[in-house]
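Practice problem: predict the structure.
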Amino acid sequence: MRFVIVTGMSGAGKSTALNMLEDAGYFCVDNLPISLIPKFADLLFVPNSEITKAALGIDVRGGRAFGELEEIIRFLEERNIEYEILFLDASDEVLVKRYKETRRNHPLAGLGRIDQGIVKEREKLTFLKKRAKYIVDTSQMLTRELHQELNHIFVDEKDYRNIYITVLSFGFKYGIPSDADLVFDVRFLPNPYYIDELRAMSGNDAPVHDYVMENEKSKEFLDKLTDMIEFLIPNYILEGKHQLVIAVGCTGGKHRSVTLANELYTFLSEDDKYGVKMEHRDIGKDAITKAK
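Answer:
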């Protein structure tokens, strides 16, 4: 029996997670009264039960009874009932934005502001997050990317290290990404922009890629970069970081940064312990600017 408790911040993707698990063959129950959780667990672990995978959605909608949850979790442990906690999280800024887009009220905000409700919710969920086996930060994720991460954990049953990495290329002339954790400047490399036949292409095109990577400085930079990132990621995980944005920038965000970001993405993708995605923020902006 695999028993997953799905919880986390309201607006972080709990409903999406439960729907995905249901599609993957899990027996799913959402918002079960807190007091009924022990009985639900007992039913799941009946010998020869037809149910082999189950997921239970829990959130602060439990009201006052939510305060009993910590005691109930201890009860499960005393009964040797094995469970895993999946905790969906996102930054406060992203959660506020999502609530405004859907025009929903936060369950703990009452007549107050959304951000005040989020603060209260984080406090209430602290003990669950500390016990979570999987923490997925959805701040930078699309729905399909969340599906991929959950599929990685609960269907493919691969090792998961509780961090999601975004590799982002950008152009300095359009500003440094505000959410970047690490920023690397590759403007010291020869610029394909000044090669007539390469100017209209991007780092996604083989001729530009080859031009950039044939330079010895590019190869040396990539070796040093991957070595450092390989060192940093496990240490970030130990410090409890669940979202990492690595930004690689050049002048316009079209040639050199795209090439090196693609190389870094390829390197990170070889280790399926981490969720990784690629984003080229400014790859098409030069053409748009010139058109204007």
